[in-house]
Amino acid sequence: MQSFWKRLPAAARALLAAGGVLALSLALTFALHNQDTWRTGLWDDTSQSLVFGRILQMQHGQSAPGGFLGTYAVDGDTAGNRYLFRENAVPDPDTFISYSHQTGLQGAAFGILNKVYSLFAKGGEARERMLYATNAVLFYAATLVLAGAAWRVFGPLAGAGWLAAAVFSPWLQRGMKDIYWCTWTWLLPALAGLAVWALARRRGRVPPWGYALVFAAVLVRCMCGFEFISDFLILCEIPLFAAWAQALAARRPARCWFGRMAGAGFAAVGGVLAALGVWLWQNRLYFGSWGAAWANVLEASTRHTVGGEMSIPAVIGQYVFSQDPVLQLGPLALPPLALVVLGAAALALYALAQKRRGGPGLFPALASVWGLSLLAPLSWMALAKMHCQIHTHLVPMLWNFALAPATLLALGALAHQALRPAGVATGLPPLSKGGGTAAGRDGGI
Fold it and tell me: Would you call 311 exposed, middle or buried from its count of C-beta atoms within 10 A (0-12, 13-18, 19+)?
């Protein structure tokens, strides 16, 4: 199969891979009922009201001050917009006001998509399910790409572990369909960092458009919400950091990987600043002056980051020692602390196995992936402790970005190592020793 695959033209391989990802994403979405809130539940219905309000306005040709800011009902009915959408009701423009604490890109994007879906489904409930299914398919597609990279580097069991973390997460099964949070956009920075890693391995360098992907991914993510941004910035760097750590451990040139990390970091911060600029401009349209716009942006930015009664260690402890399951498989429930212990144990056993083989192997890369995946959610708990004290129903989702998949990846990589003496093919690319490939020239995995 590998020989047949390599003989195919690159365009054919790309088309087949994309078709396979799409087919599997559709199968997972409908097999697990991710388009159906009745079966799986819904995550944070309150915030979705902003998006449904904007969709309703676009559907009926109405506009609101502030560009494409989301809108909500003046009377405070936080879920009403969703049911107005289901009923195909015509909203009264005077009953809506703009929400100036987010840019609201998701409302504008889904407003356009809703018009397309209106050509096929007139009922509001049917179009709502179509929007949810779209979100779920995109999330699974992004997850499959990341799982494919894990498979390529650490073996098929590691890739299967990464995917299983999405399938068995009660948080993701509820949250991936949410049209306000758009959890698939949370993976965009990670995909962009992975693209930079892949370009470096194949070409030996990263063209400017590779870093432009990082900029665009972070820009889109922030325009759908600035929450949890430190988490996503760290996810963007994981593939590059892992390659840098692997090169250092193998005593191969590592400076190029450090430069790529820095380049991706500058591009990501540029995306954040660009999104802040768009948000400031929207507030200028809404409030009518730059002074009022700046004051609103500053207030919204600081309200959830500073203050609060709990210290940073207390906030972190609240979520680390929570008994809410991050992964659920029948009666087996894994809370956050269990994931930390399980991942650390898997890494220790993997390191021992590699030592017996006479070298570090892929342990530096695996440890980097898992360590940064633990640091990513903790970073938000430290930098935005006030937000974590208020939104206790949102923060536990962060364990799935990406501590849970990284832990199952580590277990899969460990199992892969255990099976190798039995004659199971590894399917892993060899560590480069210099020469013909781009990875060989710069020492990357």
Answer: exposed
